[in-house]
Design a protein that fits this description.
single chain; 127 residues; mainly alpha; globular
């Protein structure tokens, strides 16, 4: 139980909402507002690719950077937790298959690790 006290829950909650939830909702709104299902999907490949990039690649990258920068202690543990919690919430919300979930976890973990690497490499974390 002592290990749970070392986790900065505020950082995890802010990362989940600010880096995952808000971009996912924004991407959903963009898709619903600008892309009608009756239109030709080939015309919207660029818009869907941009939504995918923002919600699937950029979100975990920012989450990894945010948690590595603002975690009071053990930043890599926080990055690991956010890399697991983000895709878990996405899988629960979307009802993905297990294989889809595992692929998304791998992509998210790589993006979170890159974000954490950038944050820690720049030395932006205070002592």
């Amino acid at each position: 139980m002592r290990g749970i006290g070392l986790i900065d829950w505020k950082v995890l909650v802010f990362a989940l909402f600010g880096c995952y939830f808000i971009p996912w909702v924004t991407a959903e709104v963009v898709v619903r507002l600008f892309i009608e299902t009756t239109e030709d999907a080939a015309r919207h490949q660029g818009a869907l690719g941009l939504v995918f990039l923002v919600s699937t690649v950029l979100s975990p990258l920012l989450a990894g950077y945010f948690t590595a920068r603002f975690a009071a202690n053990r930043p890599l543990l926080h990055v690991l937790l956010i890399a697991l919690l983000g895709p878990m919430l996405q899988a629960v919300a979307s009802g993905q298959s297990v294989l889809g979930y595992l692929g998304y976890v791998a992509l998210t973990a790589a993006c979170c690790a890159l974000g954490a690497f950038i944050a820690l490499r720049q030395g932006v974390r205070g002592a």
